[in-house]
Structure formats: C-alpha cells, structure tokens
Design brief:
Low-confidence stretches: 25-40, 411-426
Number of domains: 6
Number of strands: 29
Number of helices: 14
Shape: elongated
Mean pLDDT: 80
Radius of gyration: 39 Å
Amino acid sequence: MKKNIIYIGILAVGLLLGWILFGNSSNKETEHNHTDTTETNQMWTCSMHPQIMQPEPGDCPICGMDLIPAESSADGLLADQFKLTENAMALANIQTTVVGKGNVDGNTLKLSGKIAENEEANAVQVSYFSGRIERLNVSFTGEEVRKGQLLATIYSPELYAAQQELITASSLKESQPALYKAVRNKLKLWKLSESQINQIEETGKVKENFPVYATVSGTVTEKLVEQGDYIKQGQPLLKIANLNTVWANFDVYENQIDLFKKGQEVLVTTNAYANKEFKGKVDFIEPILNTRTRTVTLRVVLNNKNDVFKPGMFVTANIERVSNNNDEVLTIPASAVLWTGERSVVYLKTNPDQTIFEMREVVLGNQIGNEYEVLEGLFVGNEIVTNGTFTVDAAAQLQGKKSMMNKEGGKVMTGHEEHTMDMMTEKVDFNSTVEKSFQPIIDAYINLKDALIQSDISLASSKSEAFRKALEEMPVSQREQTHNYWAILHKTSKGINENVTLEHQRKQFQTISDKLIEMVKNFDKVNDKLYVQFCPMADNNNGAYWLSKEEQVLNPYFGDAMLKCGEVKQTIE
C-alpha cells in the first residue's frame, strides 16, 4: 500500500515537472510563431509623413525619423474604397453633400463671349472715280466722322474731262437734249450732286480737285489709303463703323443649343464695369455648327450710345434657361467635380456613418450657374465630397486606390518610389494653337511664382490678376480644347486675388501648379526649358510641385523660411 502511494506521488511530480518544462516552452513557441507572423504582415510608417509606407522598420526617407508600426487597414473595405480619419477630415475641411433632384427651369446659364462691331451698321467709304488723293482729311483710326463731312480731295483726269463735256453740252442742250442729259447723268453716277453739276454749268469753270464726302456717320475702324495714293474707281478708302449698337457674340456648345431661342432676355456684364448689368436680347443663333469647336454663335445686340462697349472686350452673359418641360434633373455643385482629359470624377461617401470614400466617374450635362447636370454615374441620395475634393483625391493616390490621375489604381507608394517617380498623368492631346496660346500664360505663372517666393501677399494678388487676364486673352473657341484645364486655372486663380493670407494663396497656387504641370508635360512644344521642382515639406509634409525656368530651387511655398528646400524632378525641353 505504501509502495503504491509512493509510485503515485512520483508520477504526479513527474507530470508537474513535464508540464512546467515542456508546456511553457510550447506556449512560448506558439507565441513566438504568432509574433513572427504578425511582424511579417506589419507595415511601417513615419509619424511626420504618413504617406510613407514600408514593409520593414528603418528611417523615414524624407526626414530621417524612426519609422513606427502603421495601423492595420480597415476591415470590410472593397478594393476601390479607402478610409480617412476624423482628424484628417477636420484638418482638410472636407465637406459632403447629399445629391438630390432640383428643377432647373428658371435657373441661369452663364456664357463667355466677346464684343464685335455691328456688321449691319458698318460701311465702306469708296471712291466713285479714279484719280490721285491730293489731300486726306482723316488722320487716324478711331476718328469720329459725320455724314456729309469732307473726307478727301481727289484729282481725277476723267472727272476733269467730264466737266468740260458738260460745259460744251450745256450750249447744245436746245439742239441736242439727249446728249446734254447723258452727260449730266454720267456725273450723277460719279455721285456729284445736282447743285455741284449746276454750279459747273453756270460758272463754266472746271474744278481740278474734287471733294469726297462721308455718306454715313461713325468711327473710322481702318484707313485703307494714304495721301498721295493713286486710286481706281470703286476702290475702298475707309472702313466706318457705327458703334451706337454692338454685337456680343457667345459660343454655345452643341449640347446647349436647345436651351436658347431668339428673343430671350440676356444680362451682360464686363470686367470694365464690374458692378453694372446691361440688358439685351438674343438676336441670332447661328444655323451652322462649327465642326472644329462643336459650337454655334449666339448673338446679342447691345445699345452702346454711351460708348460703354469696345470691340474686342470680353463679356459674360447670364441667360435664363428655356425649358420645354418640367422634367427634374440631377445636379451637383461644380466644386465636387475633378476633370482629367475627357473624364469627370467625383468622390462618393459610401457609408453615411463612416468616413469611407471611393472614386466615381460621371457624365455631365450643362453647367447651370455653379452646378452641373449629371446624366450618368450618380443617383438621388448619394453623398459626395463638395469641399476638399483635391485632398480626398490625394489620399486615394497615396493609398493606391482609383483616383483622378490613376484610373486603374495600384499599390501604395513607398517614400523612395514617391520621390523617384514622375507625377502620374494621363496622356492628353492639345493642338498646336492651344499650346501657342498658353505660352504667355506660362510666363504670367512664373511671375506669380516669383511673387510667392518673396512672400508678398499684395504682389501675389497683382500677379494672379495678370495670370487670369492672360487666361482671358485666350480665344473662347480654344478654351474647350483645353479639356477644362482653362476653367480650373481661371477659377482657382481668383482665390489668390482674395488677398487673404499667404497660406491661402500658396494653397491655391499648388492647385494651379499641379494642373499647369499636367498640361505642359503633354505639350509637343514649349518656348523655354522648364523645370518641374518638388518640396517634400510643403502642403503639411504631403509635398508640392511647381514650375520654374531656372534650375536653381527657390521655394514659393516657404519663401525665405526654407528658400532652398526642394529638388528638380523633371526637365521639360
């Protein structure tokens, strides 16, 4: 009995020692294996540069700080979805709007156009007989003339001979009345008045130099001859325009033609008189489509008795949309839309309770004020980003999701890849005319960049105004050919003119720089060598690009604070 108790005690002690020695070791091995597995899937990031994402620990390639373990990606997200933190949403002031249907009947459409002479009121002053201009009484283009005013004095051998014939025929008018009448009619065809013909006949004297009088009143828009020139019968001398009324010509795109009709009331504004509106009516809609620009010309006749409008002046028209039915259409704010080439994209918030987003391509219709009609891609109740859209797009690119310039999505960029790769752009074709028109715009951009280098708010505002005016010099017919880049550049530049803070101006400048770089990299030709430069510390350490004509880096995002921060990423010859 005692032996059995001893054996049982020895067995119990052995089992206890075995569990202590081998069981604990097995748990450690399991724990160790679990740790190895976790470390294998762990990604590492930088606390100062969250866009950095590497599979192993080390130093940040931007600032050199130690990398820290990154949070695991959100569970349950689809391939194209990504999540933003509440803190990031607040810092970037990202706002969303629920899409709903709105009745667009009565909403205002905005068109851009240019003032032109009223061709119906134009006249060409011609010479009715050949000869030499002895004296030209019009000194310069732009001079005002009145009907009956002396324009020129002409010596004409033909007219000299015709006067002698009249004097001779007048002595034979009793015996040869037909001859006498024919000679008088000949002078009338040369626009001599009855009083002038009677004076020649009564005095019996021949005039060597004959006056030419204005047949209309108006403004001389072109001098076609100079004093001393020899002219032929019917040759134009001057072009005279009556500017009491002028035409405002607007380009209407193909999908907007049915929105307008003759007789519509139009409110016209111009930068020259920013606080005034001028009323007019649609007088003509061109019946033939311009196949190159896919537009027709809509003409408005404007009263110009006070000489407010000058031919060549840019104007904007606000026209109440005409609708033949009361159908409701889906509309979204213009600030929600990003353009690239022929694609229009928005960012959809897929879950109302979480900050999860995905890119959605849409097909747009007409622009109505500050909104666009949506033909395809969205439905009533969808929630979309309407403020901070560029920031959300940047987050999508950094997380390797579908984005404005990365149509198919892809892997997350590491710090090394982000610094060595070029800016991602889709190939967009621009014709040579657009490229040529953009050269002075690039020059104006460089001046704006230099003003921000100096950290001068007032100067930056002035240079931004010059940049926008350079954009407005671009013919309306070419703006559509920029694939909406023109509209983005023009709208964004206004933010710099608000003259608020330097930080605000530089944020707008970043958007301008990104869009301009996208364009220039697709140009076949540029006038000057351009350098694409990059600062990793700009835009809250997200990095920002700009264009320069000098290889030396001078940073417009920091000025003197970090003047030399940055590097040349690409050279555009």
